[in-house]
UniProtKB/TrEMBL annotation:
Pfam families: PadR (PF03551). This is PadR family transcriptional regulator. Residues 12-85 form the Transcription regulator PadR N-terminal domain. It comes from the Bacteria.
Length: 188
């Protein structure tokens, strides 16, 4: 659920004010279904839940662009901004690929320095995991699944790839790649 909450809050924050269909359109246009397990129904459920928890509030639409009942438009409250920041920071240190993916999608909403610090924490945690995984005993004829050399090899390769990916992202950010909102605001 935190992945969906982060996507929904991020979409509304990028727009300032948004209705459910616009949030769904954003997430669909970002092809988030290819890098997360988010489903359309979970987006609307998250909108309801976020409003009930005081993280978003409804606002009156300035212009009713369609005939029929007015649509519900949302803005993010201070409580929601705090939740967004906490989820985003958590996502950038997470070893879960879906959470990291959403974190990367919104990392520009942090300062460059904060994004670097969080990704460095992730890299350190991954390096610790690699050392642990390499220390696991394996057996040619495994007495239990956790001692199967192929299984341990899969784990080591996966975490090594995650560490290398994190290192590449860090290098790109440190090299000045990508625009961060805080830098754009400083330039105004």
């Amino acid at each position: 659920m935190s992945t969906v909450r982060l996507l929904v809050l991020g979409s509304i924050l990028r727009r300032g004010i948004s209705h459910g269909y616009a949030v769904l359109s954003d997430i669909t246009s970002w092809h988030a279904d290819t890098w997360t397990s988010v489903k359309p129904g979970s987006i609307y459920h998250a909108l309801d839940k976020l409003e009930a928890q005081g993280m978003t509030r409804t606002v009156n639409s300035e212009v009713n662009v369609k005939l029929g009942p007015s649509r519900k438009e949302y803005t993010v409250t201070k409580h929601g901004e705090t939740e967004f920041s906490a989820l985003l920071e958590s996502a950038l240190v997470s070893t879960d690929i879906q959470q990291l993916s959403v974190g990367i999608a919104f990392m520009d909403m942090l300062s460059r320095q904060k994004a670097i610090a969080l990704l460095q924490q992730r890299r350190i945690a991954l390096e610790k995991s690699i050392r642990f995984l390499r220390s696991l005993p394996t057996e040619e004829r495994p007495s239990e699944p956790s001692k199967h050399p192929e299984l341990v090899g899969i784990w080591v390769s996966y975490v090594e790839n995650e560490a290398a990916t994190t290192e590449r992202i860090l290098a790109n950010i440190q090299a000045g790649k990508y625009a961060f909102n805080s830098e754009l605001l400083e330039g105004e």
